[in-house]
Amino acid sequence: MSGFVLHERLAADCVVLGELPLSCVLLAKDGRYPWFILVPKRADVCEIHHLGAAEQQQLMRESCALAGLMEECLLPDKLNVAALGNMVPQLHLHHIARFVSDDAWPGPVWGRFDALSYNNVDGEVARWRERLARLPDFVSAE
Questions:
Q1: How far does Cα 87 stand from its chain's mean position?
Q2: Which among 16, 60, 95, 138 could bridge 36 via Cys, Cβ 3.0 to 4.6 Å?
Q3: Of 33, 39, 44, 40, which Cα lies nearest the Cα of 10?
Q4: Is the separation of the CB atoms in 112 and 103 below 8 Å?
Q5: Which of 77, 44, 40, 75 minimizes the C-alpha distance to 56?
Q6: One Pfam family, short name please (predicted)?
Q7: Inter-axis angle of helices 53-74 and 121-132, nearest 10
Q8: What is the pLDDT of residues 26-67, one digit of tens each?
Q9: Are 34 and 116 in contact (CB under 8 A)?
Q10: Does the structure show a pLDDT above 90 at 6?
């Protein structure tokens, strides 16, 4: 983890929920969609293939665990999982629960609408930290 610093854009747009062995777990500050981001705690890594083989596998385990938890808790119509880096070069993996009833369905969520603040962000953060505690090796940020 030496030299790792969370990109300023991610820090501004998200709340840190906690950590898994490889990744920081973030909640995007957009109450319009259940949107989480995994950020491997590695300096100067921009692409999944820049990680070593063991870390690639660990990222996939963490991603699948998060996706499974989201599916269990939210029952989405679709989970969007993507590693995009057009605005933030630091490797990060988006996990967005999508519903046919959401504002952007079936299109992408990026750039469609301004972020919608949570009515109670502290309550949402606490709820997700409690849920994430079911995952092995999750350590809450609080």
A1: 16
A2: 95
A3: 39
A4: yes
A5: 40
A6: HIT
A7: 120
A8: 999 999 999 999 999 999 999 999 999 999 999 999 999 999
A9: no
A10: yes
Going along 1-141, which residue ranges are E strands?
A: 14-19, 23-28, 35-40, 78-82, 93-98, 139-140
Amino acid identity of 94? Answer: H
Whether 2 maps to a domain, the answer reads: no
Which amino acid is residue 58, in one-letter code?
Q
Cis peptide, bond prior to residue 106, ω within 30 of zero: yes
How far is residue 61's CA from residue 38's CA, in Å, rounded to a whole number? 11
Q: What is the CATH number of the domain that holds 96?
A: 3.30.428.10
Indicate the number of domains in the chain: 1
pLDDT at 124: 95
C-alpha distances in Å from residue 87, one per residue of 26, 30, 46, 84: 17, 17, 12, 8
Name the token pair of 13: 């747009």
101-112 confidence digits (pLDDT tens): 999 999 999 888
